[in-house]
Description:
mainly alpha
Amino acid sequence: MIESEQNSSILLSEVKKHNEKSDAWVVIDGQVYDITSFIYDHPGGSDILVEHLGEDISDVFIDGQLHEHSLVAYNMLKQYSIGQLAGYRKPTTKPTVLEYIKNQQKLKQEKQKDGADINNNNNNNNNNNNNNNNKISYTSDNSIDEKILNSIDVNKAMVPQLKLLEGKNYLKWIHSQTGLNKIIIFDNSILELFTRWPWWYIFILWIPIITACYIYSIIQEKSSVLVSTIIFFIGLFMWSLIEYILHRFVFHLETSSYWGNFFHFFIHGIHHLTPMDHTRLTFPPVFSVLIGYGAYKLFLKFPDSFQITGIPWALYAGIACGYMLYDTFHYYFHHADIAWLPTIFKTIKTNHLNHHFKDDNRNFGVTSPIFDYVFGTI
């Protein structure tokens, strides 16, 4: 691989030499990108890229039937740019990739606004699907001021800079910058250390709790293995609804105040900002422990006549297991490409990545798409 300055001129013949997963270059709008470090993180999977490595993929990039891309996806490429294609001329008979994507998003926004106006005129406020469709996603909204974009230095600690993102500009900025590899959250190195956790900590933390609760359920006076097992799986299913509600209405709450933005940044903003940072994907342990402890105290309030059935703790174990699977699936969706997994997992993965890179107003289910279908957000 040759070293190239950011604004250097690179021959197409040189680009063609870099056509392997271990050495991958592509061209879009006359700009050359080295995507070697990104190829396995590609939301559409690595296989879809292989046949186009070492080529100009401008037409492929906007081919909706093959793999549609958003402005967020286009902006992600900037960090991989290594130079310009020698002899490139801007097309005169068709739009560039960037122009095409912006035009498509503008049309989509206008369509959504028109739909919202019609909906309001008809006083049709009872259709969840329509209400959700009429809410323009921040992933699709590219109206953030360039001055605001330039005021944030992604190489410096983020918490002190949150005050620069006033009102709705915070959410616009988060989604406009989706795809950053790594960020610094705190100036303090000790605090920063506690923001990074390996994906497997979830098993060490939750398997003992799940096991203890399930066994405790079974040994209760009026319990049985059969009943506890059935309730466990009911709890497992309940998690998919809990997850949907949290993701849609808490993690994606509309916020514009400083403290609202601060809260959102820690519970979900960091993940949307750096979805490919494998050290920050899972829910921070301190938050999951606090929520788990709060749920534990709540379950203790069930009357003794109900406690001796073992149902509360089988239910708790099932919900906790659902959460553990949520974090595990989540990691796979962002950092793994396992060929032998059933098609359903690959479909859910595609849905989740579309949530990040195409429309943050859809596909809230992570472990299951059931409630996205129920509430019209698929």
